[in-house]
Known about the structure:
Elements: E1 2-16, E2 23-25, H1 52-61, E3 65-68, E4 90-92, E5 97-99, H2 105-115, E6 118-123, H3 130-141, H4 147-154, E7 165-168, H5 183-200, E8 205-208, H6 221-230, E9 236-243, H7 250-254, H8 256-277, E10 285-293, H9 296-309, H10 325-340, E11 345-350, E12 360-362, E13 368-370, H11 374-383, E14 387-395, E15 397-400, E16 404-407, E17 409-415, E18 419-426, E19 433-441, E20 444-453, E21 476-477, E22 481-483, E23 489-494, E24 498-506
Helix pairs in contact: 3-4, 3-5, 5-6, 6-8, 8-10, 10-11
Amino acid sequence: MFHARLSITRDDIVAPVSPRLFGSFVEHMGRSVYTGIYEPGHPTATADGFRQDVLDLVRELNPSLIRYPGGNFVSGFRWEDSVGPDRPTRLDVAWHSVETNEVGLHEFADWAESAGVEIMQAVNLGTRGIAEAAALLEYSNHPAGTALSDQRQANGRTEPFGIRVWCLGNEMDGPWQIGHKTAEEYGRLAAETARVMKWVDPTIELVVAGSSNAEMPTFGSWERTVLEHTAELVDHISLHAYYEEKPGDLGSFLASGVGLDRFIGDVAQIIDEVTVEQGLDTSIGISVDEWNVWYQTRFNEVDKEPLFAGDWNTQPRLIEDEYNVSDAVVVGSLLISLLRNSDRVSMANLAQLVNVIAPIRSEPNGPAWRQTTFFPFALTATAAHGDVLAATIHSDTYDTREHGTVDLLDAAVTATDEEIVLFLVNRSSSDPLTLEVDLAGAPADSVLSAQSLFAPEGGDRFAANTVDHQNTVHPVDLTDVTLADDGTAATVVLPALSWSIVRLAAKAAA
Ligand code: AHR
């Protein structure tokens, strides 16, 4: 049995909880759109051709904003193809696929409205530039009386879409990107595009593209150069981070949140340096607009070459990773990292939403179900409100290859006047962990609920939810939670390799 102590106080607030931390991502890629959210002819299809079963799961997952329509896809995308009555079929060379453009901006916006999510729209700065980005913005957000806004109205949408958050391209630092650029080339283009877009609609927020991952050879210098060009024009800079379990190194994988903390800290430092150097009084947020567990090594080494040498398909099965218990624990831990860093992280998007490295899976003409990673996301997005409180951790530790010595406990805490919520991870793959929570600075009245996700009976950490066994892994009630009579201390026993959520009713202020 391992031990840890967690101290929290209402006097130490990291930041208010932003619902935008719980975003997701729909890319025109693989089966994310076609046979994912959209499948006319499916038994549950709505009149508009969207899958009701998937929509119900999206509502339960509870994302706040959804990045659209890519990803690598956006860097070859002509937005005009996806509006109006004529929808040309095009090659999508980013993913060696065929795009029918059956679902476009209008259809997606209607779906987003029914899902209760805000759209975060990306523009193409790979093959296109200022004019096309400004035109899409005018089409989307200008009320009426210009050719583009009138065209939107003629296409059935009287009121503007009112899209507030816009990404200036995607992963432009990556040689895999269509229209890949140097930091200098991209920084100039992003700055000029940002300037014009804000002239078209000054109410928008812009996200400039940061590094595709912390291992990029240009990481750091990319952010610095791009921000030197754009700092006074943009509101956020993106950060993309994917993690996977490498053979024989579960320990490092379980500590992925430590890697994300460091990545966020490094980008935050560059933001501060550039804004100080430029004498700017603005705050630039970090938009972690692609993050997840993704078995990318497998994709790059095994699946990618045959994909690009193979047939062109409209809905190829691309990166449909099946997630196990360890993956869910890591997703929970990455959410904890995002909460912990919410003084710097302005938004975050779990990449992606359906089928493509996704918490929701669906089969064509078949069922939709929750992957293991669905649960930490849904429960965190639904329970995290009020403020993120600073949490002091004293924990037993373990050694990792990638991240040095790491606490076995990972934790974040949110609180409203009514509720205190603990998000907890036990990184030990072998033993439970007894956690003492010091609530003297945030006393509680009672335990409202406590749930935990860990290996099902038999202890198989590779257990997953599949089309044939859709409910193998799910959270269960945690019984080992006790609260002291005066409400100033609690004890929780966290199962080995687990993600847990404990909701406490807060004591009313005297
Ligand atoms: O999410 C899958 C892909 O990962 C996206 O298209 C790209 O932006 C990233 O490399």
